[in-house]
Model the fold of this input.
Amino acid sequence: MSEDKKLELTWSEPKGHGAPEPCLNFEVFDKAEGTHLTCGAVFEVCATPRCSCHAVCVHSAPLLPDGTATPGLLRWFWLDLQERAVEMTPELKADPAALHQAEVISKQMASTAWDELDHWFWTAKIEAIERAEVAAIDINDLPNADDGHLVPFIEVFL
Ligand SMILES: [Zn+2]
Done:
């Protein structure tokens, strides 16, 4: 794969109803084997209803010849969509294979793919909010509604 080839998203066909989910295939160089491995990644928004972060959790794994994830090799890490960068955590630092996958994705993803992920983030975040248990929603620091004005949805949640 040439260095300047950019990674684009693909979209999975939803089963039943629901919006298509973004997926990404990419290649990493496996030092132990001395070969390139094809990996697949899926994305999940931060599902904490009132969290203001702009992050997606990436779940990635080398793919088997039939296109399914290799059991036991699933890695996960966070990408910050605003910074368009990997969110460094102690766990990620301690796992070179995950870190390598995170770097490949963050450096090689096309800007159109970042745009699409950003767009998808808002749809998926609103879905996550709608599914959230009311009791699980943090009600501290709600926007002030004492004067009887309606508070826009977006100010409560995002
Ligand atoms: Zn969050």
Remarks:
- The pocket of zinc ion is lined by residues 46, 48, 51, 53, 55 (CB under 6 Å).
- Residues 10-128+151-157 form one domain.
- Residues 111-131 form the longest helix (21 residues).
- Strands lie at 10-12, 21-30, 35-45, 55-62, 75-80, 85-86.
